[in-house]
Amino acid sequence: MSERGSADRPAPDGPPVVVVGIGADGWTGLADDARRALRDAEVVFGGPRQLALLPGAVTARRVPWPSPMLPALPGLFDEHAGQRIAVLASGDPMFHGIGGTLARLLGPERLRVLPHPSSVSLACARLGWPLEDTEVVSAVGRPLETLHRVLAPGRRVLVLSADAATPTRVAALLAERGHTADLTVLERLGAPDERVGPLPPGGADAVDPLNIVAVHCRAGDPLPLVPGLPDDAYDHDGQLTKREVRALTLARLAPTPGALLWDVGAGSGSIGIEWMRAHPSCRAVAVEHRPERAARVTANAAALGVPGLRLVEGRAPEALRGLPAPDAVFVGGGATVPGMVETCWRALRPGGRLVVNAVTLETERLVGEWQARIGGDLTRIQVSRAAPVGGFTGWRTMMPVTTWTAVKGEAAR
Predict the structure, then answer these.
(1) What pLDDT sits at residue 224?
(2) How far apart are alpha carbons 347 and 352 in whole angstroms?
(3) Nearest to 273 by CA among 235, 305, 236
(4) H or E element, residue 387
(5) What whole-number percentage of the chain has pLDDT above 70?
(6) What stretches of 50-155 adopt beta strand conformation (E)?
(7) How far apart are CA 343 and CA 261, in angstroms?
(8) How many CB atoms lie within 10 A of CB 392?
(9) Residue 88 to residue 72: CA distance in whole angstroms
(10) CA–CA separation, 38 vs 30, rounded Å?
(11) How confident is the model over 376-389, as a mean pLDDT?
């Protein structure tokens, strides 16, 4: 479903759509204005579990969400245009809920949102955890490996479960990575029969599907969020931007929240992965034509907590066609392929950054010519690492790397 800007939305037509947050306590937990909105509605949309919480006093037609839901939403609301519509959502509709989707589809001016305490707020209240100090990871329709990014000793994390199996999967993930943690499963929060306690021995068979998992990390070996992870954090065949060069390259790319990176000639995926680790909203597309390396990119991204990295298997620049416009592009290999730099530069958004690393004379010559044409700056770095030399220790020097950085539409800095 495409998103429309406010200038493209039609003028509001008919009464506002009322989005009502409802908890496991159902009708009894709703405020008067939420009950009134549901009683006044002509049609109520929601999941089967939520619709079943409504009493007979709500006479509106009850319409369960279609599956798949998102593609069907525009037609669903068009079908009921002009009617008084209410939407049921779990907890706070604007927190990992349907509210954000409806705001993009209909426009915020068409909505009246009546939130209920979210499961996260209720969980923090039960556990005595300050909400502002608690990480939240959603496993609803998303890979659980996102949890890897936030695990560290002392951290408190709430996992929004997809189903009854999620707590067992969280426990297995922690054990696999060697983390020691206290796990608490909070089921049916707010309902009269809510349950808070450790993971039951029966696993998924003993857990209610409506649950949230609290993880209090005690010990483990976390990886830093700053660029420059150890080289051995990656599975690679030698095609890896080395740690020191990687840190400098990311500094040149300058990731910011929500920005999109193209990692062209991704190799092991390290640049795109560390771009996404910089902030949860950072996005990256890794382009790699070798199947075995493409598989490593996907595996490394999951292992390092950014399974949302998008992989495009194909040869650049042809494989770049149709991709969303990037805020930054890194070319780590293949810069001398005809049309590569032109395609990347042309695709960049205004103010976007292009960074090319060169280790061969041919690529150095290319970036020198581009720097003379459009500006930017050139930096050459050489890294030496201490290594055994017989019974002593000496310096082993890696190949020098020339980095060209250019900012589209302004002087590079």
Answers:
(1) 87
(2) 9
(3) 305
(4) strand 384-389
(5) 96
(6) 61-64, 85-90, 111-114, 134-138
(7) 14
(8) 6
(9) 17
(10) 10
(11) 94
Contact status, residue 333 vs residue 378, Cβ threshold 8 Å: no
Whole-angstrom Cα distance, residue 395 to residue 80?
73
Which amino acid belongs to residue 176? E
Q: Which amino acid is at 336?
A: T
Cα separation, 316 vs 102, in Å, equals 37
Task: Provide Rg for the chain, Cα atoms.
Answer: 26
Q: What percent of the chain has pLDDT over 90?
A: 85
The SS3 of residue 284 is: strand
- Torsion, Cα 255 258 260 261, to 10 degrees, reads 20
3-class DSSP assignment, residue 210: coil
pLDDT of residue 13: 61
Q: Model's pTM, two decimal places?
A: 0.85
* Contact yes or no for 293/267 (Cβ under 8 A): yes
Give the Cα separation of 301 and 324 in Å (integer). 20
**Residue 23 and residue 119: Cα distance in Å, rounded?**
8
